[in-house]
Design brief:
Elements: H1 2-16, H2 19-25, H3 31-52, H4 58-65, H5 68-76, H6 82-113, H7 115-127, H8 130-140, H9 146-166, H10 180-194, H11 201-207, H12 211-222, H13 229-256, H14 258-282, H15 290-314
Helix pairs in contact: 1-2, 1-3, 1-15, 3-4, 3-6, 5-13, 6-7, 7-14, 7-15, 8-14, 9-11, 9-14, 10-11, 10-13, 13-14
Length: about 325
């Protein structure tokens, strides 16, 4: 807890530009670089968590944290400015790995024990960013024809949600029984939807019937049991291929028709909120009480607003020439 307070103190101080506060919480002279690096690790943590947690969208989390467009840029052409891309993604990758371990060890228990309250937390996270997306739509100009794109995005994401809930949690939890072709198809589909705001990778995996199998495989790898390494690696490679191909289409839409892109994002995010509300109402959680639920919802809204503030102040989502070198605090 002390470490978390220290890190948050650094981020708030760096974002506010308060030199005295910086001196109070940090003895180093390379605070800004370290703050950006820590913030990207935090971005990666929440991105990874959104992949593991059913119903959450990693793309929405990336938008909230201010790194979505840069991730799309990198994924669409990973070998352009390769060194810069690697250095930008290293802290995000660290966060993703940490989130995988934490989810499997802690958040899995949290979802099983306080599932409804946990969904309300993520509901607040998403809802807190809706005004930002609305502002982007106004910035690029809204056309009535874009409304059909938003409606289509809403329907697509909600259909995936209902398909996932009908499929249960996706297969046997005690082994990786899916065939190679089935795993490859699931990986590609999961990767292709990963960068679409409002689309949940975990829901795609549930529809394919491999979600719990992959969680089991990840647990075995954490325990240093490499029995399932090859099929898990195949799944991961196919997911990367899906990300690269879909990111090029997403990048084209953002460059050519940004107003439509953000209208569709609003549709996807609204659908995510609707899905989380439906999921929360359906859940039979004996440990749930409305005071806890209201607290988690408000906490999610507060965290979302904090992420928007930090990403704007710290400019962590802007790729530039300065990214083509090691962070200053590592020199």
């Amino acid at each position: 807890m002390c470490v978390l307070c220290y890190v948050l103190g650094l981020m708030v101080a760096g974002a506010s530009g308060d030199a005295k506060l910086l001196e109070a919480v940090s003895p180093t002279s390379k605070v800004t670089s370290m703050l950006n690096y820590l913030y990207r690790i935090l971005c990666g943590f929440f991105l990874g968590l959104s992949v593991f947690a059913p119903g959450l969208s990693g793309a929405v989390i990336a938008i909230i944290m201010g790194v979505y467009k840069d991730i799309v840029e990198i994924a669409s052409n990973p070998f352009k400015n390769l060194k810069r891309n690697i250095l930008f993604c290293i802290p995000i990758g660290i966060g993703v790995v940490l989130s995988g371990i934490v989810f499997i060890v802690i958040f899995d228990l949290l979802f099983n024990t306080y599932e409804k309250a946990t969904y309300l937390l993520f509901l607040g996270l998403i809802a807190g960013n809706l005004p930002v997306i609305y502002a982007e739509i106004k910035k690029y100009g809204f056309k009535l024809s874009y409304l059909w794109g938003g409606i289509a995005a809403f329907a697509m994401a909600l259909s995936l949600f209902f398909a996932g809930t009908r499929s249960g949690m996706g297969g046997d939890a005690q082994g990786l029984t899916a065939g190679i072709a089935h795993l490859a198809a699931a990986g590609f589909a999961g990767g292709a939807t990963m960068l679409i705001p409002g689309m949940s990778v975990s829901m795609v995996l549930i529809v394919f019937g491999v979600y719990r199998q992959l969680i089991y495989a990840a647990k075995t790898l954490i325990d240093l049991d490499l029995t399932l390494l090859v099929p898990f690696a195949l799944f991961a490679l196919c997911a990367v291929a899906g990300v690269v191909l879909s990111s090029r289409a997403i990048k084209w839409v953002f460059e050519k028709i940004p107003g439509l892109a953000y209208t569709m994002i609003l549709g996807f995010m609204t659908s995510s909120i609707m899905g989380l509300i439906i999921q929360s109402i359906r859940l039979q959680d004996s440990d749930f009480n409305w005071r806890l639920g209201a607290f988690m919802l408000v906490l999610g809204l507060a965290i979302s607003m904090m992420f928007v503030y930090l990403s704007n102040k710290m400019d962590v989502g802007e790729l530039g020439a300065e990214e083509d070198k090691l962070p200053a605090f590592l020199d």
